[in-house]
Amino acid sequence: MALTNVNNNGNVADSAQPKKSQNTIVVPSKDDKKAYVRKILDDVYSALSIKGYDPVNQIVGYIMSGDPTYITSYNSARSLICKLERDELLSVVVDYYLTKGNQ
Fold first, then answer.
1. Domain, as residue range, for 54
2. Model pTM?
């Protein structure tokens, strides 16, 4: 036997039925996440290069210290890299190095 409730409009709502949502939660795959991190790293690398910095040293400095001032704000590079956790960045870099860097 299903329970019934009366909503504010006086309509009967069957509470045994699951509520259907208009929004679907999409969980990104591991490859999607890697591609997202890679895109951000590419954009940050490009912005650092354009501004005359050594991109590798600046990104390493950021990962090691967590200080976002290692990354230029040019082209929103700093806000982009701050969207990611440092361990995510390091994980993608190490994974890339170990899987593709040895080829």
1. 28-99
2. 0.70
